[in-house]
Write a structure and sequence with these properties.
The longest helix is centred in the middle third of the chain and has 18 residues. Helix 2 packs across helix 3. 6% of the residues lie in helices and 41% in strands. It has a domain of 278 residues: 7 Propeller (Methylamine Dehydrogenase, Chain H). It is mainly β and 608 residues long. The strands form twelve sheets. Strands 24, 45, 46, 47 and 48 form a five-stranded antiparallel β-sheet that branches. Strands 1-2-3-4 form a four-stranded antiparallel β-sheet. The protein has a four-stranded antiparallel β-sheet with strand order 5-6-7-8, with no helix packed on it. The radius of gyration is 29 Å and the shape is elongated.
Length: 608
């Protein structure tokens, strides 16, 4: 659902329980109540450089353009006369909790006013020592975080109602370790901290409370601001940056040099107007994302973290090339098949990755091209098109020996892709032909030939052929990719008709790899981005739309229950961890202990 913004590019937004405040780059301050339906902007003030509002909405401050004076609003009324009290001169940024104001001065010094209320919107300012100049600060419920001019994050220890100034600053090691470079930060409801970085990525941390202001997490969780792959997050975010500083540069540079001036001014921190592109209240997460629009997520959000996993007995510098998940033969859960090259293979349980991997001996003198696996068999395809099968069992989960499959039925056909379901195997040849086989073991269960059934591939333009097939672990879905990275789905698959009836092109993105769980499809784009397909049902096998998730990988796989594993660009093994942020519950759920399908809880972002 879309609504108009106030009219010009958004420099700053601030949200309280009942209102959203929006500052455009011309200095116009607008306000709208937060109804269930659309926003109705009212012009509130002019010549404003920054706006701050307390979480309850009782306190409202502004910093004036040109003069850099901070003013506190006597009584916040949307209509009627307002009285502004001068709170502090030479101010560049203000953050308000429900009873304090933290003010950054033009020289980078930090000041604090305490004991604030509706009847006392400003007070005497006290200087608070700071190890380095600050560009932004955020305060809420006796928690204070700050952003330095060098984009480092600090948090204040010892803050309480009895000691509102706190005791000391601590550098946030987590942000350093993740090399996070925030543009703006804000404290949200339910003890969360949010950051928007220079790449336009949104992150959050949980458990941020006065006694533990750094929070519970040893890493940031990334949230995809945009649901849909078609949205170009980076270029849009750059547009915000440019809009943010156009007012400061317009008078200083001719048009042709404006872009360079903007870029230089932003990175060198010479400008005194700080963009606040992020606001969080009890109804949603608000992110400014364009010249006259912003995004809001009002429900659940999924945070992603890619955890680097080093199996026991392997070097941290090990460069993996391939990872494949399959149902474990021994118990519930998944096996992971890993290799570094075409000459090696090992196996490890996805539930106990800290254990030592089991080495799997490959047939002599073969270069393996790819693998496919199910609960009772591992299939391997070499570069010559030969197929080898390894039977798996509870007593021998990695198998005893390889059996070369007799492919004489296929004649001169050279297979290039394999996919194992539960009882069915699919294959693709070098010319785009598709084949179906009942049974995952070397011998067909009925011992009758022919074992392979040829399936008509989708009708394609000249020169375009299928290059890979991908099956779900329960035999209910088959998807394929062609030589132009288009995605196709096999429709009409049922227990009575396991080969399906037709092909359907799936629009929305180009993919160079697919991975299927029992319920949905994941895709890797040519640039390494990952997306999930939503809306897949028995009656709608193609689903409705793709939604991007955070991360960029060189290879990936998914377990039956939608847990993602991947190879990162330097060859490291990555496990996707998730945490659900919900406005409607008092806890965030970690996927390691919570429901296995948190993505289904995620709500859409609205563009306003």
């Amino acid at each position: 659902m879309g609504y108009s913004g106030p009219g010009y590019g958004i420099l700053s937004l601030a949200v309280s329980e009942k209102f959203i405040w929006c500052l455009d780059y011309k200095g116009g301050l607008f306000c709208s109540a937060l109804p269930g339906a659309g926003l109705r902007w009212q012009r509130f003030e002019d010549a404003v450089q920054q706006v701050a509002v307390s979480p309850s909405g009782a306190l409202l401050w502004k910093i004036e353009q040109k003069s850099n004076r901070a003013f506190a609003c006597g009584k916040v009324t949307i209509k009627g006369k307002r009285h502004w009290y001068e709170a502090l001169p030479q101010a560049v940024f203000v953050a308000l909790s429900d009873d304090t104001a933290w003010i950054i001065r033009t020289n980078g010094d930090l000041y604090l006013q305490t004991g604030l209320s509706v009847d006392r919107p400003c007070a005497r300012a006290v200087k608070v020592d700071c190890p380095c100049p600050l560009s932004q600060i955020t305060a809420r419920n006796s928690v204070v975080w700050a952003l330095t001019e060098q984009r480092a994050l600090l948090y204040r220890e010892g803050v309480s109602p009895f000691c509102p100034e706190g005791e000391q600053w601590k550098c946030d090691i987590v942000s350093e370790r993740q090399t996070l470079e925030p543009v703006c930060i804000t404290l949200g409801d339910q003890h969360t901290l949010w950051a928007l970085d220079i790449h336009g990525k949104l992150w959050f941390r949980t458990g941020v409370v006065p006694k533990k202001p750094q929070g519970d997490d040893d890493h940031w969780w990334q949230v995809s601001i945009t649901d849909y792959v078609v949205f170009d997050q980076c270029s849009l975010f750059q547009a915000i940056m440019h809009a943010t500083h156009s007012v400061a540069t317009a008078a200083q540079a001719p048009v042709e040099k404006a872009a360079d001036k903007l870029r230089m001014a932003f990175w060198s921190q010479q400008l005194q107007c700080q963009p606040s592109l992020l606001g969080v209240n009890n109804s949603g997460v608000w992110v400014s994302s364009g010249k006259n629009e912003f995004h809001v997520a009002k429900g659940n959000l999924i945070g992603t973290y890619w955890n680097n996993v080093v199996p026991r007995g392997t070097a941290s510098a090990t460069k993996w090339a391939f990872v494949l998940a399959s149902p474990a033969p021994t118990q519930d859960g998944s096996s992971l098949w890993l290799c570094q090259s075409s000459k090696d293979l090992c196996n490890i349980s996805a539930q106990s990755v800290q254990c030592r991997p089991s080495t799997v001996q490959l047939p002599p003198d073969v270069d393996m091209r790819t693998y496919a696996a199910c609960r009772d068999a591992l299939w391997a395809l070499d570069n010559l098109g030969q197929v080898f099968i390894r039977t798996l069992s509870k007593s021998c989960p990695t198998g005893m020996h390889w059996t070369r499959l007799d492919l004489s039925q296929l004649g001169t056909v050279r297979l290039t892709s394999l996919a194992c379901g539960n009882q069915h195997v699919w294959a693709c040849d070098s010319k785009g032909g598709v084949y179906f086989r009942v049974g995952t073991q070397p011998l067909n269960p009925s011992l009758m030939l022919p074992a392979w059934i040829m399936i008509e591939p989708p009708v394609q333009p000249a020169g375009v052929t299928l290059v890979s097939v991908h099956s779900s672990p329960n035999d209910q879905m088959l998807w394929a990719l062609d030589s132009r990275w288009n995605v196709h789905v096999r429709t009409g698959i049922t227990e009575e008709m396991p080969v399906g009836t037709d092909w359907e092109h799936v629009p929305g993105l180009q993919a160079c790899q697919l991975a299927l769980s029992t319920r949905t499809v994941w895709a890797r784009c040519p640039n390494g981005d990952l997306a999930r397909r939503y809306g897949i049902t028995d009656k709608n096998p193609a689903g409705d739309y793709w939604k991007k998730i955070p991360g960029s990988v060189s290879f990936f796989t998914v377990t039956s229950s939608d847990e993602l594993w991947a190879v990162g660009s330097p060859g490291c093994l990555l496990q996707r961890l998730t945490k659900t942020f919900s406005h409607s519950h008092n806890t965030q759920k970690n996927s390691q202990t919570a429901a296995p399908h948190p993505e289904d809880l995620e709500d859409e972002w609205e563009v306003i």
